[in-house]
Amino acid sequence: MNYYIGMDSPNTAKRHVDVLMARMGFRDVAVRMGRGKVATFFRKLFSMVNLATKLKHDDVLVIQYPFKKFYVIQCRIAHWKGARVITLIHDLGTFRRRKLTAEQEMKRLSHTDVLIVHNPSMNEWLVKHGCRKPMVNLGIFDYLSKEEPTATPHVLGAKPSIVFAGGISRRKTSFLYELDAALEGCVFHLYGSGLEKGAEKEWKNMVYHGAIGSDEFIRTAGADWGLVWDGDTIDGCSGIWGSYLRVNNPHKASFYLRAGLPVIVWKESAMAPFVTENGVGITVGSLRELPERLRGMSEEEYQHYKQKAMAMKARLNDGFFFIKAFQEAKKML
Q1: Which residues contact 165 (CB under 8 A, 6 or more apart)?
Q2: Are 254 and 124 in a shared domain?
Q3: Alpha carbons 168 and 170: distance in angstroms, whole number
Q4: pLDDT in single tens digits along all 333 residues of the chain
Q5: Contact 206, 179 (CB under 8 A)
Q6: CA–CA separation, 179 vs 316, rounded Å?
Q7: Which helix (H) or strand (E) holds 4?
Q8: What is the CATH number of the domain that holds 201?
Q9: Among 38, 159, 258, 320, which residue is least crowded by beta carbons within 10 Å?
Q10: What is the crossing angle of helices 12-23 and 251-258, to 10°?
Q11: pTM for this structure?
Q12: 297 and 168 share a domain?
């Protein structure tokens, strides 16, 4: 039997994987309680007890990492009961919050049996820093939604339109605040919260729409492209957040593709090979390249990317990538 502990996480990717595991017949051993930090602590604690009573020899436990303090405890309970552990990595603490050293992270991950990692770059980074566990590459995170994109035809000759959705504070995405002048001849649609007050007043090529729900975005997004970018500058992804793209699969890419939008990614990001190989978007070294690159694209070229993105959205909604990765990981146990 396959097990997991569903924690009603605020993290969309984790919630979607919980849904997929439930669909696949996994048993959820989470103990339901109230909300808040104290309640979450006790939910996790009591779920550990429940896990110890349910697991049997040769069962499989899937843990979505990070699970903070209880990750190692789950692994130990599973092995004590004769079960095996598959860990799906969402974020590495060495990069994301920088509260762990690479050595500390490897020590934690040494308690699992198999790892599902984002991509070959993350695989390589883990091996370089001492991880010796077998690994499966996910490829891309799935994205579930009951909504479907509204068919918006691409008009040849119109200004190319690009969308960015997510956190837009200067701390995390300061590149946005120098982007307007580089997008002459394009229209850039910005969705999210945290915009610096008055920043949009001087914009000529960018339009700020505020924050909307993810399902509404999927249903209504009418742009030609979705931008996956992070960090300090438009000339490559730098800084703490930007450098993380060298190993990370941002859920934002899945979000855009689920909305039927081809993506634009940094050519040095870990997502770039997936985007290129699957024909679901383009890669650039600098956002200054976009006006010339997009305006020079033929209708046939764009439709190629669009059709690939529309085919990919169906796979993401079906959970294709997690299901495939789990099946491969289980064979390694």
Answers
A1: 190, 191, 192, 217, 226, 252, 255, 256
A2: no
A3: 6
A4: 999 999 778 899 999 999 999 999 999 998 876 676 776 777 788 888 899 999 999 999 999 999 877 999 999 999 999 999 999 999 999 987 778 899 999 999 999 999 999 999 999 999 999 999 999 999 999 999 999 998 666 666 689 999 999 989 888 899 999 999 999 999 999 999 999 888 888 899 999 999 999 999 999 988 999 999 998 899 999 888 788 999 999 999 999 999 999 999 999 999 999 999 999 999 999 999 999 999 999 999 999 999 999 999 999 999 999 999 999 999 999
A5: yes
A6: 30
A7: strand 2-4
A8: 3.40.50.2000
A9: 38
A10: 70
A11: 0.95
A12: yes
Same domain, 166 and 121: no
Q: Which structural domain, as residue segments, surrounds residue 267?
A: 161-317
**Secondary structure (3-state) at 239:** helix
Q: Please tell me whether residues 183 and 111 are part of one structural domain.
A: no
On whether both 63 and 180 belong to a single domain, the answer is no
Alpha carbon distance 204, 266 (integer Å): 24
Q: Per the structure block, which two tokens stand in for 33? A: 């309680």
Q: Do residues 218 and 259 lie in contact, with contact meaning Cβ atoms separated by under 8 Å?
A: yes
Query: Token pair of 323, please?
Result: 């299901």
Angstrom distance (rounded) from CA 324 to CA 136: 10
Per-residue tokens: 84: 């095996």
Counted domains in the chain: 2
Q: Do the domain assignments include residue 144?
A: no
Backbone φ, ψ for residue 228 (5° rounding): -110, 105
Beta-carbon neighbour count of residue 256 at 10 Å? 31
| Whether residue 89 sits in one domain with residue 223 | no
Taking the C-alpha atoms of residue 78 and residue 57, their distance in angstroms, rounded to an integer, is 9
- CB-based burial of residue 68 (10 Å sphere; 0-12 exposed, 13-18 middle, 19+ buried)? exposed
Is residue 148 in a domain? no
* Residue 333, in any domain of the structure: no
